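Ops channel
N.P.: pipeline sanity check, posting one input/output pair.
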């Protein structure tokens, strides 16, 4: 079964690619046309993440790079090239997308919704009816800030915290409509906020939380505050719940869980095709061990790919205070006497609204299929600082 992967040079896509290479001799990576040398960027990630030299040297022979434009019909390919690509695939992983929390909805729709539509067109055109694995987000749950978000729910009744959430909700709605129309099975994977303890490097995709740091630094500069270590720290009141919590999932573990879920749902004969290399992490076989695979049924099956412990909001506040020279005070409501710095932050509600969340993502389906086992990663302040601060001075 030949596999294609979109978003292979992204924060999650690189980890999915490395994990998929443990069970597939070759892969096709669908990259954004004009975005640079994808193979070089992939190779650099493998080098920086400690991949064995033999694996790094083998990448040019194991990866086929196809430049595409997700926003365009037929992915920007000619009719012949599109048909040849579709007919050669047994599975499609759609990981590409924009995660810009402050993005314009029209732009996000072109990337996240239209891009998904065109990947589904590719799946519909393939004569082998390739399996479709769509990476969504747990945050399609929208602006519901309390209670439990279940894996089979998809409703916009609560509204959305930002345009990114809405665009991913619309993309997942499109996936469900496509599945019904074509009578095809689709695996939808909903990760929470993805993080890593791999140290930051200019040759690596940015850590998703780096955007929050940049927003705070830009706000400090705009309002004329010093950013030099050792100067007096300005303080800012930020709306949040002292008992709030967010789910942050190590991206390396998320990639492993996603591929294991896809393997468990694969039809007979679509299991691993090559032995796992020595650097592959040992895996708990779970309740499906020994099973030859099950025939996929039409319809969408959704899984929350989340960590077994949420991160308390005060831990996130402590992280932000280490990232920038700023003191943060959680308050229940927006202050009436907002300072210029606090007023400026009203233009960036995409992340700050999450500091009020106390909901939990149910992952019963994942635990039932793969077994309930503690994560090998502890997501705490040290873990988060390692992926954001290692190698540079800490503020304060």
């Amino acid at each position: 079964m030949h596999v294609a992967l979109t978003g292979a040079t992204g924060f999650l896509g690189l980890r999915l690619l490395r994990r998929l290479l443990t069970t597939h001799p070759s892969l096709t990576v669908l990259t954004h046309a004009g975005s640079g040398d994808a193979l070089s960027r992939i190779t650099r990630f493998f080098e920086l993440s400690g991949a064995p030299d033999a694996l790094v040297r083998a990448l040019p022979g194991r990866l086929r790079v196809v430049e595409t434009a997700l926003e365009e019909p037929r992915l920007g390919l000619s009719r012949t090239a599109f048909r040849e690509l579709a007919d050669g695939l047994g599975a499609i992983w759609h990981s590409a997308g924009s995660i810009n929390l402050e993005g314009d909805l029209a732009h996000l729709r072109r990337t996240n919704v239209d891009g998904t539509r065109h990947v589904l067109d590719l799946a519909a055109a393939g004569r082998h009816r390739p399996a479709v694995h769509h990476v969504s987000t747990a945050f399609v749950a929208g602006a519901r800030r309390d209670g439990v978000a279940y894996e089979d729910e998809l409703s916009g009744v609560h509204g959305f915290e930002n345009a990114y959430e809405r665009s991913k909700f619309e993309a997942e709605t499109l996936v469900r409509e496509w599945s019904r129309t074509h009578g095809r099975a689709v695996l939808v994977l909903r990760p929470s906020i993805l993080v890593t303890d791999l140290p930051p490097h200019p040759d690596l995709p940015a850590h998703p939380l780096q955007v929050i740091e940049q927003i705070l630094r830009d706000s400090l500069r705009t309002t004329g505050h010093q950013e030099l270590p050792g100067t007096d720290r300005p303080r800012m009141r930020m709306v949040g719940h002292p008992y709030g919590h967010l789910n942050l999932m190590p991206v390396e573990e998320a990639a492993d869980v996603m591929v294991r879920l896809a393997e468990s749902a694969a039809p007979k004969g679509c299991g691993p095709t090559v032995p796992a290399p020595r650097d592959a992490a040992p895996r708990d076989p779970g309740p499906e061990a020994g099973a030859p695979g099950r025939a996929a049924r039409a319809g969408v099956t959704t899984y929350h790919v989340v960590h077994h412990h949420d991160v308390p909001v005060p831990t996130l506040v402590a992280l932000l205070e280490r990232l920038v020279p700023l003191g943060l005070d959680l308050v229940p409501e927006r202050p009436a006497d907002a300072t210029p710095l606090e007023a400026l932050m009203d233009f960036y509600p995409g992340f700050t609204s999450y500091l009020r969340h106390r909901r939990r993502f149910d992952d019963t389906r994942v635990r039932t299929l793969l077994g309930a086992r503690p994560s090998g990663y502890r997501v705490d302040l040290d873990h988060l600082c390692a992926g954001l601060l290692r190698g540079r001075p800490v503020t304060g």
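N.P.: looks fine end to end. Confidence is low (pLDDT under 50) at residues 268-296.
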